[in-house]
Structures
1.
Amino acid sequence: EYVRQLRNMAGNTIFAGYVYGERLAALFRHCALFVLPSDLEGLPIVLLEALAYGAPVLASDIPPNVEVLGDHGEYFKAGNVDDLARALRACLRESEALRRNSSELREWAMVQYDWDAVCDATERVYMGVTGR
């Protein structure tokens, strides 16, 4: 019943289900807005994936999302439906500006989360812990 109600209210929302490969890439590249409403995350890989494709993003304000997006992110208060609705309206009103900013955010994230840089930082931690 819940899913039926969502589909009736969804308008042009896509309920994509499990997707991967080129279809997933196309969804990220062409979405109006990627929203991550998580209450709990480790490192939000899906958020990094959305950034890598240049998707405009809106995320809950939990610490892992803020760690990834920093001052560059668009946020709403986690668990607050009214704030999510406010942020959705604001982001969709400013979709062209968000799309332009998403390329800058993509470049920033690609530097911050570059695999070589992450490996170097991890190695420094291990070397520090082992006294090498």
2.
Amino acid sequence: MKKLGLIGGTGPESTIVYYRELTHGVQKRLGRPFFPRLTVESLSVFEVLPFCARGELDGLTAYLLDGVRALAGSGCDAAALTGITPHIVFERLQEASPIPLVSMVQTACDAARKRGWKRIALWGTTPTM
């Protein structure tokens, strides 16, 4: 089984949800108790939001990239961001990342299209909106 990395802390509550849902999803798929190989690199939402407020997208990318590199160094095969706000630099981060990144934005769009939804709502921080 591949090892997944999560950039946590940039959406503290969602970090917990990601961990729980990934673990339960793997258990459901396997049909037995199991904990997947998963590493959380906890970054701070209190670092992310000031970068956003100042419009420092290069600084935000560098901050997140340090976390992604730490995940890659721990043996993660792929990673995801647990907060939606950091996705404002997702493309930049993906280009520089040493491992594949999973976008919650693209995943949500794909799921909406699959269900035939034409309009969806988003709630988020000011930078996200």
3.
Amino acid sequence: MNQIQQPEDMPRLFVANWNNRRADLLAELFEANADFINVVGLWWENRPAIFKAHAYGLQVIFPNSTLQAGRIKVNQLSEDAAIVHARMQLTGQTAPEGQAGTRHTIFTFVLRRNGTYWLCVSAQNTDIVPGAETYIRTEGGTLRPADYRKK
């Protein structure tokens, strides 16, 4: 079943659909006009765009990847609204020059009850960068991690 019965099901279903390369089922977890913002700030503003981006990603960037959910925290805002945070681990990403290393991210899912099940209204994926607290944009325009605590 691909319906979100409880808010904490969202990360688990997202992971299952990702690992099964089912962009169609992944997109079904979202409302028709949902938003999805990826780790570099690309913003998809509806279910067809979310499907298209994930279909491409699962074929080209992540065809051999495995996604795992770790800690999941639910903040129930009301009977019909919830925020879900989930730590994720991604392995097997394809890089232009071969295989990429393991990535760790935190997903934020905003959910709304739709009758007897829930749908995602908005999702954002943020990379965890060990040893960093922000980024600095260099004169050349690239971003580099920075930690002001280490002077």
4.
Amino acid sequence: MKLKLNLIALLLTVAAHGSPFADLTDVEGKPAQWATTKTRVLVSLWATWCPECKSKLRHELVEYDKRPDVAVVAVNTEKDMGRVKHFIQAEGIKLPVIVDSQRTLRSSLKAFSVPHWAVYERTAQGWSLVDTAPAFELARIEKALEKRL
């Protein structure tokens, strides 16, 4: 039994290292914690000045996060953490927020503007990118969430 639990812990650790968030932080500057039992992750890159982002953070993304197979992570692209923290509190954002102030994830996704989204799937090798695109195309996001690698 102990060997089985250790193997599960090892697999979760390996999967976490394959995380697209490995070098990112939370709004407090601590390393982003990434552990989910869900098989899909919908990442939404956003900024406080983006009206479409604000709407998505309060409505559509919250609905996606309620799905049993999907976790939503809001990735802010700004450097002013005071502004980001104030926005999260003032708008009552309940989704996990990770900060990409060094633009690591943004660069890897070739995201030049916000909003921008990406869907990742958990595989035996870690997290794999399913699809990514600018704007917020609901039909394309739905298709990415259903696609199997």
